[in-house]
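pinned: reference chain
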Amino acid sequence: MKESNGTHEYGTDAHKLARAVDPETSHSAAAVVDTVTWEQRIHVWVSSKGALGGTPKEALDSFLDAPYSTVTARFSALKQAGHIVANGKKRRGSAVLVDAKYAPTVSDLVAERTIRS
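pinned: its structure tokens
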């Protein structure tokens, strides 16, 4: 189910959460996952990190009540929707993601590469 807050659209259709070959229990579970709420929660969390962004591993530390797959899958959905983007950096072995408003420009990436050289 998709839902809009006026600015962003959230939610992943249940048919995308389980493969055709998965058992019926997977399809049943996919039908009840609240992707709208979790995508909103993760997006707000990433946005709250500003230009420094956050990683899925860091989000897991913040959302101790959530299963691993609930948190990490929402990052993928938000990236596909264009709400968050990778900034080209890594922390703790994970890509750092930022709200799309903090997306690095080509000149940012070139400058970062030059500094590393």
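why pinned: The two ends are 46 Å apart (CA to CA). The mean pLDDT is 85.
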